[in-house]
């Protein structure tokens, strides 16, 4: 997530310069050809009104794409908001539910009880970090045409697992990470752990089921993330939007020289060049903005800041456990919060 | 679901070539007639401004259709996401709930208990595969005008039932598949199986009802799929969109020759031909994109990848049961994941 | 619900012919007047650019209306989808919950228990059929301007009650149908029947409340249908849309003769007539499509197919009861499924 | 709520005549000035293309406002639909839950039990009528610029309280109506009444909490109504829409005389006057339609028909109690149902 | 929240005057240059049709931004509506659930019980006030380009804590306010307090879990507020909208002088100046309206009126406790309610 209110001119240029040079070159070429060919009886002008109609139709089509891309981002963000809420609820439930109350004959010591709480809360932290790592892994589908910002270093630790292993015993971590869907298996382990607590008399049926309800919610949240990750915005919608914009951009200078030539005095035709570059840039930018926001879990500038959210949950939950050696919050790096 | 980020030019051409030839022929014909008739005093030009107004109105109308088609696809995908979540929840609940705890006098052996778990989890897998097969069956309504990609082979097994029968005893499978709605009857059987477990003392009332809650969810998810399958996008909206676009495309060359003739020097009128083909193709494509995305369960390129989702659930659930002879994940075939 | 993918030309003409004749007459009149008056110094042309602006603004306004009409239809369809889901859930719950388990001292015979199940499930079928009949009854508000397709016969039986009476004892049916809101009173009776089963020991508190939850859902679904039925799309939005389109259509020929006259050679002015008819028809059709889809419960072509849905539920539920003398599914009549 | 399908011309004129006179006067003035000044070398024409651009941008902006106003109305209507559903559910729950079953030692007589039911159901009726009266009270914010239809008499009784007092003992009614939020205090009293029934053994814990769930829903529904009432559509969006439309209307005649003057023969310039009035009226009407639908609880033509809904609920609930002296349904007055 | 129906001209001018002067200066400059340069053979006119196309595309893009900004505001308002509802529900639950019923052997006095109620209800009030203060604190992201209205005094008390401390014992308040997320810790304390009441026999399991359900809701509502606060509207969408509008405004006078020059008689070119200022102002205002509504928790004119809502909840809840020394409702200050 980009955190500055106004995007730095440098970043805009970094994305735009290649296009700007291309647009300039193309409109210079077209205007030049026009000026060269017209006296020789060849007219390459296009009427602008039909172009304007395409322009509006395409702008409308891109509006639809932008709107859906934003919805994908916002749904992803909402899902991670739900992960925050459920993690806090889980911690409050575990602290308030797992107790000696239903087991007065053989009560655990306060420290042993606290250990049970910590185990369940830490496994929740392991779950959300494992989910984050799974989502940030690049998919099998080809995505090389998205221009990643190369100098953004992911602060995920090198192979990734370390951050999950903080919250799990070593052998459990190894077993879980080797399975098909580590986060799903972690939630499954939570449900088995609850059953053991119930069998051990540390939980009654009411509270067992209320905790299971939270696990159900977590399955739903994980599923929502996986759905957005694994189902890209339908390509037939997305790709044609790109094609249409480029067709419009290619035709634009032909139409603009026509319009300028209508104004009369000859020299102004070359004004078509900067004007064409500007209009092309606006359309190309509208298109790219939607394209870049489509996938919120790709290690990219516009990602949902999952690393920061995971850390915030860690701080809240460990504070609820009374721990004080808390890690610092994640800070934006190069104006980007991941 | 098409999985490449950029659609292969070949696939685009495969859909477009017929139209492109038609557009070229039509605009050649119109431009030729115009050039032939004008000197003879017959003017077939149309003013472009009214055409532009229709173009924008129609683009707007198609925008509405595209938006609703996408919503249908996305709701279908969300529903299958919900099936993933509920299946995982079901497996965790069954493993954690069905136990000897409430039946200490006559406990089952661990293996017998495991069998009970497997039966319930396998019937869930049977349900979702039966639902997939029911949805992929072509409906009674005529749909021949959608151009299916013929060489895409469905990997569903030949008559379909085998994959359901993997998860059910033979006679149950036969009985269920002969009824009106096999998936609904499978869920009904789940609820009867729960009642028997409750009567046998392997489940208490709390857990019985929590499992019933998951079955209720499954009924809702199945109903959502059937609703999308059985209620096509209202034909009055969809069909007129197609008609309007074709009217616009038919009128377009008449308007373009008018605009080109305004620019002056005569030869450029024939530029109307490629320009007309391009604009026609853009409008026809916007229309077709919506049309092809309307129905997400039709064995088609843009389907929800139900086969892959079913397989992923199978892997997750059987891993939760501790099984290791897992089938491989479904891979895209010709860039298409079904 | 219209079930053919392409609407038959006959049906389109049936709706359109009156308008088409009117549009032709009007544009002939305007063009004729123009040709007659212009040489006499009276110019009735209108500039087209302002007309185009109205056209786009009106298209935009109709887009809003179409979108809301579709939402009304789709919400109605979703509600009936919910009725399917809740009816299936109700049948599974009743079969799995109402039992001798909580009443071991004086158990019912299997047949008597089955009767209890059937009574509750049949009353659910009575509820949904009563709801359908209530919704299909024409409202008190004047709706004569919607062109009903007169030869579509409702297959509801003549006075309607028979289909409800199939599922209820005679005297209960009579009492219920005489009250203000029969479906609401049927749900109320379900809740009283549950209380009696609870008092008789055939149901425990857990299951009693879970069934009440399903009744609560049914109240919600009934309320949603009644809301859509009783609250038409706000007239200030809907009616002005119609007025605006007709103003646009009336002005259109004045503008078109102006545009054609600009093109130059005189004879082509009469091309304004077919062009005007075409544009008028497109705008009128966009308007009518929204207008006709606004109310999904009016015995109309675009209705939610409630009769077919009710029958499908009947088949599913009676199959769950093990019955075999099932009625056939409803087939479309004249391409229309009601 | 206006109930006629086609709005009476009289009502439209009643809203429009002031504007129509104003528009006519203004466009006459501008056209007159133009004709007078042009020969004197002063040209007050505006080019129409930029005006058209503003027109489309403003139409688009109004579309957003209209859409949100409709959403506000529809959410309000949905909320009152929810009040219908919850009231029916409440009546069924109360009748089925409050019983002697849990209190076999000291059972109430059937009549005393019925009294308990009636008290709870009548207080629900008091709640919804109190909510209606609170919502219909004009807010502190200035709203004098909305043109209320003066001759619509509210059938609420003069000071309003009587209708609430029908359902409550006198002293309870007095106490409640003197507090900050009478409806909230009525729901609070329902929850205290439930506690007393529980203490008296007429309700068990299961049913107590299920009824509390319905009260929670009622709090949510009341809160939704208060939110819409107290948070007008943000003024920055709404007010600028009005300003933009009026700017467009003021500039319109300057642009139209320009367009007409382009058509050539001089006399037709005065056609700009009726054309201008028509376009102005369309834009002003689109604007006003949104403005008038924004607030659904203001004693206004476009209100949610709360009085009628309250009466319908009263009839249903009292029929469930077996009462027969039921009041008649509310009828529309001057085509308006309140 | 601005409460007047029509925004005061003064406030509009306060926001607009800088821009208006700038627009006037710029269009004077452009028109002047044009008049000076044209006779010298340099033509700086731009054709208007391409500009119109950009104008419409940009208006469309801004429409998307405005719509999303409004959705952010309305979601924030809904969330605070949910806080109202949950707070009232909490108070009714606490009053009705925490009792001597489950603890007949060692009952508390009525006063001691009332104290328990008050403690739980006051901590809820502390929670919502702490949440309000956390949301109103300015974020770390740079926001200096939003023009805060400087003379609006926040009525929050100076350092903020006092209002929270009203509802908490001193030491609890100190502890809580020093932690990472005070509101989350307050909810956690509520859940621990419930556990103690349960251990002390003042609450049974049913009611304990129902209260926990309300705490879960509060976690969700807090999370929704934090999500909106911490995730600004994606900058790539918001910032480019601003850039595009300014590009359009810069180019506008070049296009307008072109259009005016087409009309013919020379003097009217200077009419381009006021016309340009007006169009520029409309586009700039549409842009700014969205920009200013984007963030609903920033101590700003368009904030959700959290202070007023908190006070209203305080009045309702303390009235439910039977208290009478209630604070007055918050009144708008300078037409602004915070």
From TrEMBL, chains A, B, C, D, E:
Transmembrane segments: 20-39, 45-64, 237-257, 269-289
Annotated signal peptide: none
UniProt KW Lipid metabolism keyword: no
UniProt xrefs under Pfam families: Bestrophin_2
Origin: domain of life: Bacteria
Membrane topology according to the record: Multi-pass membrane protein
Keywords annotated in UniProt: Cell membrane, Ion transport, Membrane, Transmembrane, Transmembrane helix, Transport
InterPro entries, per the entry: YneE/VCCN1/2-like (IPR044669)
Compartments in which it is found: Cell membrane
The protein, known as: Bestrophin family ion channel
Source organism: Hymenobacter saemangeumensis
């Amino acid at each position: 997530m980009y955190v500055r209110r106004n995007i730095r001119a440098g970043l805009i240029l970094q994305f735009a310069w290649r296009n700007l040079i291309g647009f300039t070159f193309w409109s210079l070429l077209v205007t030049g050809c026009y000026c060269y060919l017209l006296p020789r009886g060849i007219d390459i002008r296009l009427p602008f009104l039909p172009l304007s109609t395409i322009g509006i139709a395409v702008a409308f089509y891109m509006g639809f794409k932008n709107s859906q891309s934003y919805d994908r981002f916002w749904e992803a963000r909402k899902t991670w908001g739900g992960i925050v809420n459920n993690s806090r609820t889980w911690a409050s439930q575990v602290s308030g539910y797992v107790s000696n109350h239903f087991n007065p004959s053989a009560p655990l010591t306060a420290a042993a009880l606290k250990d049970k709480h910590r185990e369940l809360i830490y496994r929740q932290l392991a779950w959300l970090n494992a989910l984050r790592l799974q989502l940030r892994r690049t998919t099998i589908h080809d995505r090389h045409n998205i221009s990643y910002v190369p100098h953004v270093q992911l602060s995920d630790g090198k192979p990734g697992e370390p951050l999950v292993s903080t919250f799990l015993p070593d052998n459990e971590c190894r077993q879980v990470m080797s399975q098909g869907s580590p986060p799903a298996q972690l939630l499954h382990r939570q449900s088995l752990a609850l059953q053991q607590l119930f069998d051990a008399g540390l939980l009654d049926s009411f509270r067992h089921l209320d905790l299971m309800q939270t696990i159900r919610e977590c399955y739903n949240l994980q599923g929502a993330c996986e759905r957005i990750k694994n189902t890209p915005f339908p390509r037939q919608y997305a790709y044609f939007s790109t094609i249409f914009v480029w067709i419009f951009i290619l035709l634009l200078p032909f139409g603009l020289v026509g319009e300028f030539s209508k104004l009369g005095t000859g020299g102004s035709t070359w004004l078509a060049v900067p004007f064409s570059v500007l209009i092309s840039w606006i359309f190309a930018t509208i298109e790219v903005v939607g394209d870049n926001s489509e996938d919120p879990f790709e290690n990219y500038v516009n990602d949902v800041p999952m690393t920061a959210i995971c850390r915030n949950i860690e701080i809240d939950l460990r504070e609820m456990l009374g721990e004080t050696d808390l890690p610092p919050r994640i800070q934006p790096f190069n104006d980007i919060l991941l």
